[in-house]
Write a structure and sequence with these properties.
The complex is a heterotrimer. Chain B is of the alpha+beta class. Classes of the chains: A alpha+beta, B alpha+beta, C alpha+beta.
């Protein structure tokens, strides 16, 4: 049985008691050999090998080998929070561009208060931005829901995009990273799983700082100890 | 007398290759690949919405490739707009890449691959495939494997690896035969196979064997370009 | 990269930011990005250049062909500027017949180059009344992050300054194997560049990123040169988009054009051989 081999660009990070090793892999590359290893997300079995199906970091936790992709399209799932732009109004609701190959649909009854069919654009007009939850995903479309804390029409501030695969890193383990940014800037921030970010603060400079910080994090990929690095970044970028 | 390559290379020697990813920030994935003086760039956009609706496939994303030469990439300026040649190359490139892609996760969408040649010194379509393959990986498209491509040539009776323009124009004896090939990096599955010229069946097998060796070298270049971005 | 259209949120924020003279990347409203110029994009072009301005990336190539003179200018060579907004460069560009922006870009560069007379077309005659050189400038954006016209004009001038006239063989056809030694005849003390002003609300700004460009309500492209090395001269102008320009706007632009031109020329000169 062949042990999981160490390669040059590997990164070790202590995640509690279990050591994790990570290597950059390309699709088709053998990541582990032996029946002991199980292919997780982004990997597959070929004969006795576990092979990468994505370009990213191969992460081995115990026996499971999965690939954390460096980039990739957003795949909508039920309960994902997304930020989108109203692109059209139809008689039964609003069409929302969620930066995915299919549009989202917000039914009329999802508006938080009663909206008359003739007044739909007074509540949400084309070009407005909403944060919504994905209610269902089907070949016919993606239905959105907007009743819930932190959801609704977004007013003030601005929106910008990062690669969707970077969102977990920007949120951080149990929200540690996003909370650090909120604390250092005093801004309201909502991050959609589709990569869109909304920032609103008391002044433009704080809002710009949030964007800079998030774009900085989004660029970094192989970095461990990111939280400490960001503490330092905020110290340097007053 | 054995064929002497115009630029002095050994028969199985590939021109110096360079590869780089992420060269087009707007694209979901992008890359550049060169064989000597042939320079190809590729950009991937997608999966994204596909119009018109009747072109959509409810079971999978479709792959759409657009290959072309820039006007000034060739000595006699190429008029802008797709030519028959570029349309054909677009299609065979699509067939060369799609078996490597796992498109079932993205029904009703399109993955657009744009390949342009900045400077042409033969072997343009295979340079394009090498660039496109890296760009697709960089875009995060689920893939079985990278695709490697090279043009094997036969100059009179001699087989050579990585044909350049001077060789493409060779006319003595049995003349020049150009054989562009693409294959999965890690398995014996050819996805591009074209040929123009004169070659005996038994020599064809030798050409394939030469290609296999060349593919391994090309794969190393592609891997390095994808991995070096993330070494800090 | 996203093809999501501009949101009213971002538009309103940009309006406020511009009124406060702030931009996302920290520049002032009339401050241009730095740029770099590389040569030899294609060894098959008679001249070529690649301009990188922020994330905007444009390649320009110059090819020379033997042609016949136009009936109304029998003693001059020809100039043609062409180009395409390659779908490679932006999620907004599509394959197929050119949309207006794709048609406008080469035309604006054409007028700028033609009206400044930077290329001495009279010196491009091969046989009087029969054969002349046709100079063809091809412009291709590789990545669009705003200000394509301005980047393209820098690329066109840089490429022209590197361009050599090919040698002809005994039959009067281009011999690509012979080394070209004659430079393209140019008025090197009259270098035309385009400076585009954009308008958002009441604010005028230059050199937008793609996001800023998409938010703009109005734009006006100016082509100018350092005419004969003596004075600033405007050679072309085209107002685009819907918002109107006031006479105050025009005065502001006239006040700032010379410095913007000088700054760009100074940066370009660092890259001229």
């Amino acid at each position: 049985m062949k042990e999981f081999e160490t390669k040059n660009n590997e990164e070790y990070e202590d995640m509690g008691s279990e050591p994790v090793s990570r290597t950059v892999v390309v699709p088709g590359e053998v990541v582990a050999t032996g029946e002991d290893f199980l292919p997780g997300e982004g990997a597959r079995r070929e004969g006795s090998d576990v092979v990468a199906s994505r370009y990213g970091l191969a992460e081995k936790i115990g026996r499971v080998v999965k690939i954390i992709p460096f980039s990739g399209a957003f795949i909508p799932r039920r309960n994902n929070v997304v930020i989108g732009r109203v692109s059209d109004i139809v008689h039964s609701g609003w069409i929302i561009d969620i930066d995915y190959a299919q549009n989202g649909f917000l039914p009329l009854m999802e508006s938080p208060r009663f909206v008359n069919k003739n007044e739909m654009d007074q509540f949400l007009a084309i070009g407005d931005v909403v944060s919504a939850k994905i209610w269902s995903v089907s070949p016919k479309g993606i239905d959105l829901a907007m009743k819930g804390k932190g959801l609704g029409k977004l007013e003030g501030g601005f929106v910008f995009r990062v690669n969707p695969s970077r969102v977990p890193r920007i949120i951080g383990r149990e929200g540690s990273m996003i909370n650090l940014i909120k604390e250092k800037t005093g801004c309201n921030i909502t991050i959609g799983q589709n990569g869109w970010v909304w920032v609103k603060g008391n002044d433009i400079d704080s809002e710009l700082k949030v964007r800079k910080a998030i774009e900085f994090i989004a660029e970094k990929v192989l970095v461990s100890g990111l939280t400490e690095k960001m503490e330092k970044w905020f110290g340097e970028n007053k | 007398m054995a064929f002497k390559r115009p630029d002095g290379r050994k028969l199985d020697e590939i021109r110096p290759m360079t590869a780089k990813t992420g060269i087009i920030p707007n694209a979901d994935g992008s890359a550049m690949f060169t064989f000597g003086k042939t320079v190809a760039i590729a950009a991937v956009y997608g999966p994204r919405m596909l119009h018109p609706q009747h072109m959509q496939d409810p079971k999978s994303a479709i792959l759409r490739v657009n290959y072309d030469l820039l006007s000034f990439s060739v000595a006699d300026r190429k008029k802008p707009g797709p030519s028959r040649r570029s349309q054909e190359i677009s299609k065979v490139t699509e067939w060369a890449l799609s078996p490597a892609l796992d498109l079932k996760d993205f029904p009703n969408t399109v993955i657009d691959v744009q390949v342009y040649i900045l400077q042409a010194d033969a072997s343009t379509r295979v340079a394009g495939i090498n660039a496109a393959s890296m760009a697709l990986a960089q875009a995060g498209i689920p893939m079985r494997d990278l695709v490697c491509a090279v043009a094997i040539g036969k100059m009179d009776k001699e087989l050579v690896v990585d044909v350049d323009k001077d060789e493409e124009d060779f006319e003595d004896g049995e003349g020049a035969t150009d054989i562009p090939l693409a294959r999965f990096a890690n398995s014996d599955e050819f996805t591009l196979l074209q040929l123009d010229g004169k070659i005996q069946p038994e020599v064809m097998n030798k050409a394939i064997a030469l290609a296999d060796k060349a593919m391994a070298k090309i794969y190393e270049v592609q891997k390095k370009a994808l991995k070096e971005v993330h070494s800090e | 990269m996203s093809s999501m259209q501009l949101t009213s949120l971002t538009y309103n924020t940009l309006l406020k930011m511009f009124s406060a003279e702030k931009r996302f990347d920290g520049r002032k409203l009339l401050e241009q990005r730095d740029f770099s110029v590389e040569y030899n994009v294609s060894n098959k072009a008679e001249g070529s250049a690649r301009v990188r301005m922020g994330k905007t990336d444009v390649v320009v190539g110059v090819k020379l062909e033997v042609g016949t003179p136009y009936p109304d200018s029998m003693d001059k060579g020809n100039l043609m500027v062409s180009g395409d907004l390659l779908p490679l460069a932006s999620p907004r560009f599509e394959s197929g017949p050119p949309k207006f922006n794709a048609i406008e870009l080469p035309r604006l560069v054409d007028r700028l180059v033609r009206e400044s007379h930077v290329i001495d077309l009279k010196k491009l005659v091969i046989t009087e009344g029969e054969k002349v050189w046709t100079v063809i400038i091809d412009i291709y954006p590789i990545n669009d992050d705003g200000a394509l016209i301005d980047a393209a004009s820098i690329g066109a001038i840089a490429a022209l300054l590197q361009t050599h006239i090919p040698e002809l063989d005994e039959n009067g056809r281009i011999d690509h194997d012979k080394k070209a030694t004659k430079k393209l005849p140019l008025l090197e003390n009259t270098l035309p560049l385009s400076i585009t002003f954009y308008k958002l609300g009441d604010s005028l700004f230059v050199d937008p990123t793609r996001e800023e460009e998409e938010a703009a309500d109005g734009k006006i492209v100016w082509g100018l040169s350092n005419y004969k090395g003596k004075e600033h001269m405007i050679h072309s102008c085209q107002k685009g988009m819907e918002a109107s320009m006031t006479s105050e706007d025009i005065q502001k632009m006239m006040k700032n054009l010379p410095k913007l031109y000088d700054d760009t020329l100074k940066k370009l000169k660092k890259f001229l051989k």
